[in-house]
Amino acid sequence: MGDQNITARIGKPLVLNCKGAPKKPPQQLEWKLNTGRTEAWKVLSPQGDPWDSVARVLPNGSLLLPAVGIQDEGTFRCRATSRSGKETKSNYRVRVYQIPGKPEIVDPASELMAGVPNKVGTCVSEGGYPAGTLNWLLDGKTLIPDGKGVSVKEETKRHPKTGLFTLHSELMVTPARGGALHPTFSCSFTPGLPRRRALHTAPIQLRVWSERRGGEGPNVGEHMSEYAVPLKEVQLVVEPEGGAVAPGGTVTLTCEAPAQPPPQIHWIKDGRPLPLPPGPMLLLPEVGPEDQGTYSCVATHPSHGPQESRAVSVSIIETGEEGTTAGSVEGPGLETLALTLGILGGLGTVALLIGVIVWHRRRQRKGQERKVPENQEEEEEERAELNQPEEPEAAESSTGGP
């Protein structure tokens, strides 16, 4: 059988099973060890004495190492014979590891000068095994040393007693003129054993200054005083306004702290600092109940103490039983449709009223035109009756006399 790879943490107990061993004594088995503690194969059996508290065989045939150390790396083999005479072998390849503390950037630079080599800082990782590697990152992307604009000086030390490693990595960069004004550097430690996640330092953000034109070279102190802008007021802007959003929506918080050099921005929620790298913007995608609360930002400027912004609230808009994101989008559409129909209905009513008024006035005019001739005929008839002579009556009265 091939060796089975085993990884064990330094200082922790390790148990290796002996396959095929009878569960009850007497047991016919034998362990053989070839590690950093032995010059040749070391043989252990259930009948033998424990090996100086380094390892001992348990009643079930397994091998116990109470506290694994670097010297226990090596090969372990067990050969067991069952009561029926069947022989079984177990092979183990043991490696040990120790996770170091979180790496740190010591002696970080306060600013960089464009066009000339600058020391960014030294990344340090202590107490790891195996040694592992350190890597520098610029704005979240791995920096590859090219010997020109980026160079790294590395040093590895091993403790004489514990055997653990300490790593140093010094970064030198030459910022390009016209490049980024506020680069962010960080360092990560990658363990030597597989399936172990990397450890990252806290990022540092630096300011890149340009050389003085036509001068005798850069003067960092004068240049900074020439462009220095004090920090006056820290403002927190939330989008959407008011901080209320439907479930699953996005909220953007922007901390405005104009100053030179730019201050470091940290974020606070419900009075507690958030474990986030410094930055002027906080994005809350797909907002859920856990994102609700009161947010503020703190700006730290070299010439001032920390200054905190006013607090803003982030909340979720409650919806009905069918309250979904789609429903919140359809709502404004229905309101717009109802408003449009209302406006069209109002215009139609006004047009109808105007038509009725115009029709009624035309009818009145026609009626007056018809009545004028009739009135004139009646007046003419009345005048004719009034103007008739009375002679015929007089004549009749004269002829009818004696």
Automatic annotation (TrEMBL):
<dbReference type="InterPro" id="IPR003006">
    <property type="entry name" value="Ig/MHC_CS"/>
</dbReference>
<dbReference type="GO" id="GO:0003677">
    <property type="term" value="F:DNA binding"/>
</dbReference>
<keyword id="KW-1133">Transmembrane helix</keyword>
<keyword id="KW-0472">Membrane</keyword>
<dbReference type="Pfam" id="PF08205">
    <property type="entry name" value="C2-set_2"/>
</dbReference>
<keyword id="KW-0227">DNA damage</keyword>
<dbReference type="GO" id="GO:0006281">
    <property type="term" value="P:DNA repair"/>
</dbReference>
<feature type="transmembrane region" description="Helical">
    <location>
        <begin position="337"/>
        <end position="360"/>
    </location>
</feature>
<dbReference type="GO" id="GO:0006260">
    <property type="term" value="P:DNA replication"/>
</dbReference>
<keyword id="KW-0966">Cell projection</keyword>
<dbReference type="GO" id="GO:0044548">
    <property type="term" value="F:S100 protein binding"/>
</dbReference>
<feature type="domain" description="Ig-like">
    <location>
        <begin position="103"/>
        <end position="200"/>
    </location>
</feature>
<keyword id="KW-0832">Ubl conjugation</keyword>
<dbReference type="InterPro" id="IPR013162">
    <property type="entry name" value="CD80_C2-set"/>
</dbReference>
<dbReference type="GO" id="GO:0051240">
    <property type="term" value="P:positive regulation of multicellular organismal process"/>
</dbReference>
<keyword id="KW-0395">Inflammatory response</keyword>
<dbReference type="GO" id="GO:0031175">
    <property type="term" value="P:neuron projection development"/>
</dbReference>
<dbReference type="Pfam" id="PF00047">
    <property type="entry name" value="ig"/>
</dbReference>
<feature type="domain" description="Ig-like">
    <location>
        <begin position="1"/>
        <end position="95"/>
    </location>
</feature>
<dbReference type="InterPro" id="IPR003598">
    <property type="entry name" value="Ig_sub2"/>
</dbReference>
<protein>
    <recommendedName>
        <fullName>Advanced glycosylation end product-specific receptor</fullName>
    </recommendedName>
</protein>
<keyword id="KW-0812">Transmembrane</keyword>
<dbReference type="Pfam" id="PF13895">
    <property type="entry name" value="Ig_2"/>
</dbReference>
<dbReference type="GO" id="GO:0005634">
    <property type="term" value="C:nucleus"/>
</dbReference>
<keyword id="KW-0677">Repeat</keyword>
<dbReference type="GO" id="GO:0009986">
    <property type="term" value="C:cell surface"/>
</dbReference>
<keyword id="KW-0539">Nucleus</keyword>
<dbReference type="GO" id="GO:0030155">
    <property type="term" value="P:regulation of cell adhesion"/>
</dbReference>
<dbReference type="InterPro" id="IPR007110">
    <property type="entry name" value="Ig-like_dom"/>
</dbReference>
<dbReference type="InterPro" id="IPR013783">
    <property type="entry name" value="Ig-like_fold"/>
</dbReference>
<dbReference type="GO" id="GO:0030335">
    <property type="term" value="P:positive regulation of cell migration"/>
</dbReference>
<keyword id="KW-0597">Phosphoprotein</keyword>
<dbReference type="GO" id="GO:0010628">
    <property type="term" value="P:positive regulation of gene expression"/>
</dbReference>
<dbReference type="GO" id="GO:0005769">
    <property type="term" value="C:early endosome"/>
</dbReference>
<keyword id="KW-1015">Disulfide bond</keyword>
<dbReference type="InterPro" id="IPR003599">
    <property type="entry name" value="Ig_sub"/>
</dbReference>
<keyword id="KW-0238">DNA-binding</keyword>
<dbReference type="GO" id="GO:0006909">
    <property type="term" value="P:phagocytosis"/>
</dbReference>
<dbReference type="GO" id="GO:0006954">
    <property type="term" value="P:inflammatory response"/>
</dbReference>
<feature type="compositionally biased region" description="Acidic residues">
    <location>
        <begin position="375"/>
        <end position="394"/>
    </location>
</feature>
<keyword id="KW-1003">Cell membrane</keyword>
<keyword id="KW-0235">DNA replication</keyword>
